[in-house]
Amino acid sequence: MAANERVRVRGLTISRPIIYGNTAIVLTPKEREALSSPDHTHRWTVAVRSAASAPDSDIVGGADDLSYFIKRVTFKLHDTYPNPTRNVDKPPFEVSETGWGEFEIQIRITFVAESGEKAFFTYHHLKLHPWTVVGSTEPDIPPIEAAMKMGPVHSWQYDEIVFNDPFQSFLNILTAHPPTPLPKHTRRPVPFHTANPASLEASKGGVPEFTQQMEREEAERLETARKKVVAETDSWRQKLIEKEKELEKLKKQLEATA
User: Fold this and answer.
1) CATH C-level class of 3-208
2) Residue 196 has pLDDT above 80, yes or no
3) Distances, alpha carbon 235 to alpha carbons 152, 222, 226, 230, in Å
4) I need a labelling partner for 74 at 20 to 30 A (CA). Which of 105, 146, 192, 249 fits?
5) Can you give the C-alpha Rg of the chain in angstroms?
6) Is the pLDDT confidence value at 169 over 80?
7) Which of 66, 163, 174 is nearest to 118 (CA)?
8) What counts of helices (H) and strands (E) characterise the chain?
C-alpha cells in the first residue's frame, strides 16, 4: 500500500445509506409445537442492509453487498436468549430468532481495517405486533389469529453512515462501490414511520421499499431534530448564564452584609 493511501483526505465527506430493522411473522400452531419454547409466538429477523431493494425482492433493502466497508455487525439480543451477543462477519448481516416479546436490540457496526474508523452504534426496538397510530381503536396487540391474517410486520429505519476526512485507501474502496440509487417514485408500499402517521395506510399491501422521497423526508426530520437540539441547548445555556448572574449577585449581597 502506498504511503499516500494512509493519508486522510481533509475536507471531504462521503456517506453510505443503510437501513436497519426487523421483519416479524406469526408462527402457525404447528410451528409453535415444533419449538423447544412453545410459548414463542413469532419468528423475526433483525438486519443491517443497504437501503435500496433488489427488483422483485421479497425482503426490505439489501440490493448491495455492504461487506466492502462493513467487517462485522454485532446484535445484542435480550439476555434471555442463548448467546445473546451475535457476531455476523459476512453478508447477510442478520439474525433470525423466535420469541414472544419486544425489546431493544443494540447494533454495533464494525468497519473494515482500511477505514480507520470507530464502530457505529445504534439501537432498534424489535417490532412484533402490527403498527397502530395514536388514537386508533385497534388494539396494540391483536389476537394471534387476527395478526396472522395481517401478514408480516416490518419495522425499518433509514440512516446514512458519514465518513469525514476518510483515508485515501478507504475512499478508493467506497468510490469503487457506489450504492444502488433509491427509486424516485413509489413502486411498492412504503415503510411506516411513527413521525409520519399518515404513512400507515401506504405501508400496507406487501414488502415495503424506501424511495428518494422518503430519503429527503428523513433528512428533513433529522435536520429539524438537530435544530431543535441546538435551540434547546442555547435556551439552557442562557438560563445557566442568568442563574450564574443571580448567584453572583447574591454572593455580593452576602459579602456586603457580613
Assistant:
1) mainly beta
2) no
3) 44, 20, 14, 9
4) 192
5) 23
6) yes
7) 163
8) 5, 8
pLDDT tens sequence across 47-66: 999 999 998 899 999 999 99
Judge contact between 180 and 50, C-beta under 8 A: yes
Q: How far apart are CA 163 and CA 170, in angstroms?
A: 10
Alpha helices in 1-141 (DSSP H): 29-33
- Provide the pLDDT for residue 136: 63
Q: Identify the burial level of 116 via C-beta atoms within 10 angstroms of its C-beta, where 0-12 means exposed, 13-18 middle and 19 or more buried.
A: middle
User: How far, CA to CA in Å, does 174 sit from each of 5, 119, 250, 251?
Assistant: 13, 17, 59, 59
Task: With beta carbons less than 8 A apart as the criterion, state whether 42 and 23 touch.
Answer: no
CA distance 33 to 99: 13
Q: Retrieve residue 108's grid coordinates.
A: 454495533
Q: In what side-by-side order are the strands of the sheet with 104-111?
A: 85-88, 70-76, 104-111, 120-125
Q: Side chain identity at 217, as an amino acid letter? A: E
Q: Which three cell numbers stand for residue 188?
A: 411498492
pLDDT of the residue at 137: 61
- Nearest Cα neighbor of 128 from 58, 178, 78 is 78
Q: Which set of grid coordinates corresponds to residue 89?
A: 462477519
Q: Where are the beta strands (DSSP E) in 27-149?
A: 42-50, 70-76, 85-88, 93-99, 104-111, 120-125
Q: Sorting pLDDT into bands at 50, 70 and 90, what band is 202?
A: confident
Which residue from 70, 76, 21 is spatially nearest to 45, judged by alpha carbons? 21
Quote the cell numbers at residue 143.
389476537
Q: Which residue has the higher pLDDT, 206 or 169?
A: 169
Q: Which of 31, 158, 153, 145 is nearest to 98 (CA)?
A: 31
